[in-house]
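re the bet — no i am not wrong, look at it urself. input seq straight from the record:
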Amino acid sequence: MIAGTCGLLISGLAGCDRLSAAWEGFNNPGPAERPSTAPTATPAPTPGGALVEAGQAVVLQPETDDALQTSAAVVALDYLPDQGDLTAKVFGTAGGDPAMNGLYTYIAFFQSPAEGWRVFRIGDYLDYQIQAVSAGRVELRLGESVMDQATSEIGSRQTAIILSFTPGPDGAVPETVTVTPAR
């Protein structure tokens, strides 16, 4: 047990060495400068950047965990508030043809660290927008591609759905999610 703990401690410290320069810069940012003009509500990005290096750079290496490929495909993520003891989110992954409903859209509920997430596929869309959230209910506005079969031209339309679900006993994740068309 002690050897395992020491190994974990040593491997954790190796990561600390890699980030020491970043940590030093974070803890000692230098004196604050007063802006010469009042800041605008949304500052415009400066071409080439406006930050000045203030510490030693840290070189990152690519991650080798294959599971991260799936994580990197997530392109939209919205946590759902007001769900009581449930941890819930709506998310989308990139897949298929981005011009023709390439956002694979899901709702997911966290079960436990051992079991992970219970995931339900809602459908394939161009995009989604959450309109309202309440306990056991999510209203979505959906952008969707449609193809005219006669001309093969791709157009778009807006649709809406209501997702509803009921937690299981003792706040367990739902067994099912109901999708109802809406307007």
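see?? Residues 1-19 have pLDDT under 50 and may be disordered. told u. also The two ends are 60 Å apart (CA to CA). so pay up
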